[in-house]
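#dry-run=false #mode=assembly
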Amino acid sequence: MTTATQPVHRQLGMTDEEYESVLGILGRDPRPAELAMYSVMWSEHCSYKSSRSHLRRFPTQAPWVVVGPGENAGVVDLGDGWLAALRIESHNHPSFVEPYQGAATGVGGILRDVFTMGARPVALWDQIRFGPLDQPKNRYLFNGVVAGIAGYGNAVGVPTVGGEVEFDPCYSGNPLVNVMCLGVLRREQLVLGTAGAPGTIAILLGKATGRDGIGGASVLASASFDDESEDKRPSVQVGDPFEEKKLIETCLELYDNGLVVGVQDLGAAGLSCATSEPAGRAGVGMEVDLDAVHVRESGMSAPELLMSESQERMMAFVSPDKVDEVLDIAHKWEIDSAVVGTVREGATLTIRHHGEVVAEVPAASLADAAPLYDRPAARPAWMDDLWSQQARSVDDDPATVLLRLLDDPALGSSSWIHEQYDHMLFLNTIVGPGADASLIRIRGTEKGMAVSTDGNGRLCQLDPRGGSARLVFEAALNVAVTGARPLALVDNLNFGNPEKPSVMWQFRESVEGISQACESLEIPVVGGNVSFYNETEGDDIHPTPVVGMLGLADPMPASPPRLSRAGEGMEVWEIGPAPTSNLAGSTVQRVFHNELTGKPTPPEPEMATKVIAIAADMAHFAPVLHDISDGGMAVALAEICIASGLGAVIIDMDTDLLFSEDPHRFLAVCAPESVELPSDMARRIGIMGGTALIVGRSDPIALDLLGDTYRNAIPRRMPGV
Amino acid sequence: MRTAVIVFPGTNCEQDVVHALSTLGGDAELVWHRENDLSGFDGVVLPGGFAHGDYLRTGAIARFSPVMAEVERLAEEGLPVLGICNGFQVLCEAGLLPGALIANRDLAFICRFVELEVTDTDTVLTRAAEAGQRIRIPLNSYEGSWVDPDQTGRVPLRYVDNPNGSQDSAAAVANLRGNVVGIMPHPERGVDHLLGSTDGRILLEGFLHSMALA
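#status=ok
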């Protein structure tokens, strides 16, 4: 490494121009602790400096939005005094360096974002992407990430009720680990990340501060990987789900008793963020004494204390007369606590260590004065090459194609993953992992919250705008087939190096696509996360936005659709626009041709909205509804057969149509004559029954073979695990 | 008839157990692990979770929690004591049940429905069930495999298809008197049609009924 000879600000990941801005704000040379604070707060990870100007494009308004983007989590109104808090985050880079702890602390971080708002976290979803499983390194990462999510999520006591997995060579050197959390609260429990009025006391709750994760936000999350990545291991934090569980219960008891003015979690940028952001939001100053911080190791310097990303910590802002009560509740739950600061008049954040002032900066400048880059964006010339090569058809027999697709680890059963997660805790998981969307009830009400998370790197590589829009429509259809209407979206934008114009173009297009789709569905974006620099050795990942859609079912269907409810003699309907034979970006194209070319079928916003409304209505009477997506109609139908233990006979049709992934379509299985839709929107394609799936003129596939192939897709690739 | 549902730091199934027992007409109350008086309670449930983070070894720290002396007293008096999942592990560590729980055969966490067969109806958990009856409820554990070199435990419930390598396919274990029972799967997760099964009811109803008889 050559960094030892560089100026300090560059070692901390700051450019010379950014350093100049700090000089301008302070009117003097920064002290070491001040430079440390600016370096983490102005990192890409914390400041969104390359993306902020684009994120303004998102529609964020709706009458049911209680808290929009900018706080720790978005909050929406579910009616009758119930609110939902939701957020999605990435932990991509830490998970590559150390898969178990990287994934585990990702879960811990997203939970804190949600219970910071006053909500009890009720469910988690994980979206994970790796290189192909024939490489040992990818199996190691996949196994470690799943174990880390299980190890933390199960022990902290929040069920992981869904998610998705994708395998593609572009993720071999840069896996993606995204996690979404949903919380529920009563309106009066809402808490914001504000420091409150002068005189308010800042209490640091939770785990002792150590040297773990020093500079994680600036060093890890905001840089690309190379051969020296192993050296970054000390920047990965270590999770302690037991501490987090106690912290959740402590905070919820504080909220129940109305003891806090505001709360801020300590994640990326640690104490730097948890002091400056709440003070900045409240327009106040603050005095902080680092000697009061409870530490795990001795001799930590002020910059280390301010940058540490030790997990499971929260900052509570409390009026002086409530301090003792807060400390007592922390003591009861057996977590450490310390009074570390006081809110002051003015706007200056003053930090002392060993009696000396080590930082004296305008509190708001750490967040508000962060650099803003309008990085050059340009459509890469290779897009024309991609679009000019139409995707090839598949010539094989449909039965052969179907079995090969069911054996694909991204399409086959996800049981190997989700059976390692507690997905049933709290007794509210009405529809759990493996379905189009999960459905979580709010007990004591008729409300159900449906969530679907969706990403598709291949589709977005071929068409970042159209592909991103299709993700939003797909997620909306997924919650609709569960009986819910789309309510709000969070997004996790995983992209390559933003300093490349091609990546910035992909990013801008993707934001535009998501925005347009949300506008046509009339739903807001209430939060999100951007992860740049997902590249290894100069190769960027496919643009991989992941969307998390929250839908509200009110009332929930008395008996929500399930794939297992298909019955002998029921009819199979395909509902939505007729598909084309365009296979650009499809699973068939990947599995059979190992290619990625062509222009994918664009979304049709009006049609999407119509189909979504039909699905949400049908969910109240149809026993089975299933979104048609990866692997097309044939795979969707096979999943119904496997879940219900029933065969089916399907009319003869062109093979490409069977595996087309054209959007806005779903399958309905119901008793004859219960579908009354115009013929351009609904086509009867078959009937359930027997012990084999028969597709047109191809050979019958026995249910056992279908099921075994599907169930073994992941386990057979993970020998000895 | 009041049931104490013990809460250690790290316990997470306590609300589910209270909900399930209440649904069945029981009167269940949460009791913090630092309490040292359970007088007035007619039975105890140690719910699932990760008591004290399961650090050192599952249940190893929880057995020293102040409330455990009272749990032992109630067990000696013959009152019904039920440990579910992590609670089962705590009861083994406390010596109230024979054997110990070790990591699953495949070294992975298992969360899914499993099928059990009732093999002994003379315990506080299985008294309402019939011998040979099949019960389908969720399993949710990593250290779920029971071992007992001395072979002193009674096994009132067995896995039909042993998922974790448990000795004797034991899904539940009782003391000789039958008033202390540990079960690895979660009966409280099987009380609602919408969640996929109501088979857990017969077990929890038996437990509530046992309190009235004790």
